[in-house]
Design a protein that fits this description.
alpha/beta, ABC transporter transmembrane region fold, Rossmann fold, six-stranded mixed sheet, four-stranded antiparallel sheet, about 65% helix, elongated, binds adenosine-5'-triphosphate
């Protein structure tokens, strides 16, 4: 392919120096050379080659080359040994290319056929669906699919239903159209003014100069740009709002399996970087499209002003300039992607260090953490230098081409002025217009660079958006209708990891208004049983029913509204005590909050704090003691006032005196509610209606305290151990 392109370039040079040819012949030769060069460059950069379009080009090339050669021989126009050689060589090469391509396609088909037979259809489809989004991001070579991946952002980047946005869009489109005219009008007007000046009339061309200044004003930042910037900011703010809300909303909607594996710092950075997508749609509409229009008008205007030679040179330079960026971009982008990843790990390390400051201090590892952070920062700096180096190399190579092109074009134009073919005004117009042409071509690569870095920045967010929540509302899900509050586990099996089954065929019934206690060794799956009730995970077998309704058939929101939970390690927001308790029921009055705190035996303690209910609890509740934290969590659930209550070691961190107080509160809480209690301290569950002893995800004993003691099994052993220890 390069040989064909080279033959055309040599033929063009031959025509320029040996045998002048009409402009249309030269233009054809140069255009075809460009097409073959572009095709060869594309082919050299393709990793997973799609042969069909290339073979199509080769076959068409062979047809056209053969016709061109036949016509040339028949008309004997511009025939010379050199051109004759080229004209015969090209059909031969294209024929060879076509034959080779067809053979490759046939052999590929044969291979594919055997591959497909060896693979089951279902397997292939599943693998395809699962890997599609990932593959799109990992194979930037397949750029159509890669871009398709980002299409989910489009409705958020340009919200069509918003009249304010539509109005801003209309303003920007009108200004963009006006700007296209102004771009040509400025150099044209200057040329007209100079021609009038040099006409020797001795008059000042006031009118022409006034128009020129007026165009300059419109083009300046005091002109149309003011209105354009306002409209731009309006659209940008709207897409910022939409994209960040989309990102945050999606992360909040993801299920517990995602949140138990996530890297918080890295996720926060990914959401933060989503902001860079704001400008994407506007960049395409108001940069790329105007650039194409500018370029076409530049080509037309220069042809009108001078001739097709100059236009072809400009066209060739521009194509080389842009191709260079396209070729260099993957090389630059690789470093940029590395840089983005390094920046994300930097925020992850910083986040973890700040979050775990206390642990770091306990183990006196502050120096180690400082070093760790400084080493990731150094990594970021080093990578940013390598990225900058690659970027500068690309820019320098491009600008060299542009400068050489300017020298060539201006010399050509000056040549025409010296021979009297063109006026000095035309030359000035061309020189002024050159900066517009250069600007246009530079904007193409600038926009390409911006778009590609925006996309690289947003890749992580895109991966996040492709992550589906594993627990969702079923299509026909209804609100949970709570009646008496009966809970039934029927043959429930579950595993966090399929390789390690945890709960196997577990069945239990919690009667309405009863208290069911779950006891057992650490890690036996007690908390997991209750996370299944909350549908943080779905059971892999069996079902969980509340008042006869399967938890998978009711909405997640109604299910979680019905259950109040006091977790093992309660987490609080870094807000005041009052605001944290109000989280149980946002509409609660101050009186209700105080009542809940009194019931949870924490009111007096809160009143001892200098700021009372306004005391800030610190991140996660770090400024409170373990016992205070647990009692606040109980108060929060009391305020929520839900029919079903789950207490996961709710009193493990309080002394026996406080525990006795809380027990009174809990008894109040338990009346009329179905309660699940997980407790290691068996003294707290002796009054439970049913005690289940769990081991390795199975219920091995069940009954009341007395029944279990009478049985003399595992429970009796645990009880004896604890009472003896006491
Ligand atoms: N989100 C999770 N992802 C993967 N494995 C988990 C997850 N949560 C718990 N596990 C594992 O499941 C097993 C049971 O954990 P679970 O918290 O249910 O035990 P437990 O009986 O409540 O223990 P403890 O009394 O110590 O609180 C443990 O081996 C634990 O490592």
């Amino acid at each position: 392919m390069l040989a064909i392109a080279l033959s055309y370039v040599l033929e063009a040079l031959f025509y320029v120096y040996q045998k002048p040819a009409p402009q249309h012949v030269l233009l054809r030769i140069l255009s075809v050379a460009l097409v073959w060069t572009a095709l060869a460059v594309c082919l050299s950069r393709t990793k997973s080659l799609l042969w069909n379009p290339y073979v199509g080009v080769f076959v068409l090339g062979f047809l056209f080359e053969s016709i061109a050669t036949t016509v040339l021989l028949a008309t004997r126009g511009y025939l010379h040994t050199v051109t004759l050689c080229f004209s015969i060589m090209r059909p031969v090469i294209t024929l060879a290319l076509s034959t080779n391509g067809i053979l490759v396609i046939l052999s590929c088909r044969a291979e594919q056929h055997t591959d497909e037979e060896a693979q089951s259809l279902l397997q292939r489809d599943n693998a395809d669906t699962l890997q599609q989004p990932q593959r799109r991001l990992e194979e930037p070579d397949n750029w159509v699919e890669y871009l398709q991946g980002f299409a989910i952002f489009m409705p958020h980047l340009l919200p069509w239903h918003d009249s304010k946005i539509l109005c801003s869009l209309a303003i920007r489109i009108i200004i963009a159209i006006l700007n296209r005219g102004i771009n040509v009008a400025i150099p044209r007007q200057l040329g007209i003014a100079i021609d009038k000046l040099s006409s020797g009339s001795g008059k000042m061309p006031w009118k022409e100069i006034a128009f020129w200044i007026c165009y300059l004003w419109l083009d300046s930042r005091a002109g149309l740009d003011v209105l354009d910037s306002l409209a731009h900011t309006c659209i940008q703010n709207s897409s910022y709002k939409q994209i960040t809300n989309l990102a945050m909303g999606h992360v909040m909607d993801l299920s517990f399996d995602f949140h138990s594996n996530k890297d918080t710092g890295e996720i926060l950075k990914a959401i933060d970087q989503a902001g860079s997508l704001n400008n994407l749609a506007q960049l395409v509409i108001f940069e790329i499209i105007p650039i194409v229009i500018d370029f076409i008008s530049a080509i037309g205007y220069v042809t009108h002003l001078f001739d097709i030679y100059l236009t072809s040179v400009i066209f060739g330079i521009s194509a080389t300039y842009i191709s260079l960026r396209i070729v260099a971009n993957p090389w630059i982008q690789r470093k940029q992607r590395e840089l983005v990843e390094k920046i994300r790990s930097e925020s992850q390390v910083a986040y973890e260090a700040v979050l775990n400051w206390l642990t770091i201090t306990y183990f006196d590892q502050i120096r180690f953490e400082k070093q760790r952070y400084s080493s990731v920062v150094q990594d970021v700096v080093d990578t940013s230098y390598s990225y900058l180096y690659r970027l500068l190399c690309g820019n320098a190579a491009q600008d060299l081409i542009m400068t050489a092109g300017f020298a060539g074009c201006t010399s050509l134009a000056m040549l025409q002025v010296t021979t009297g073919q063109k006026s000095i005004g035309s030359l000035i117009t061309f020189i002024t217009y050159w900066s517009a042409i250069r600007g246009t071509v530079q904007r193409v690569t600038g926009s390409y660079q911006t778009i590609s870095s925006t996309l690289v920045n947003a890749e992580r967010l895109l991966q996040l958006l492709y992550t589906e929540p594993s627990v969702t509302n079923a299509e026909s899900s209804k609100e949970l209708v709570l009646k008496a509050g009966e809970i039934e586990f029927q043959g429930v099996s579950f595993a966090y990891d399929p390789r390690k089954p945890l709960i196997g065929n577990l069945s239990l019934v919690a009667e309405p208004g009863s208290t069911v206690a779950i006891v057992g060794t650490s890690g036996s799956g007690k908390s997991t049983i209750l996370t299944l009730l909350l549908r943080l995970y779905d059971v892999s077998k069996g079902s969980i029913k509340i008042d006869g309704q399967d938890v998978r058939t009711v909405t997640l929101s109604s299910l979680r509204r019905a259950i109040g939970i006091v977790p093992q390690i309660p987490m609080l927001f870094n807000l005041s005590i009052k605001e944290n308790i109000r989280y149980g029921r946002l509409g609660a009055t101050e009186r209700e909050i105080e009542d809940a705190c009194k019931s949870a035996a924490i009111h007096d303690k809160i009143m001892e704090f200098p700021d009372g209910y306004e005391t800030k609890v610190g991140e996660g509740g770090v400024r409170l003691s373990g016992g205070e934290l647990q009692r606040l969590a109980i108060a929060r659930v009391l305020l929520k006032n839900s029919k079903i209550v789950v207490l996961d070691e709710a009193t493990s961190a309080v002394d026996t005196l406080t525990e006795a107080e809380i027990q009174v509160a809990l008894q109040r809480l338990q009346s009329g509610r179905t309660v699940f209690v997980i407790a290691h301290r068996l003294s707290t569950i002796v009054g439970a209606d049913k005690i289940l002893v769990v081991d390795k995800g199975q219920i091995i004993e069940s009954g009341t305290h007395d029944e279990l003691l009478a049985k003399g099994g595992t429970y009796k052993g645990l009880w004896t151990q604890q009472t003896l220890t006491k």
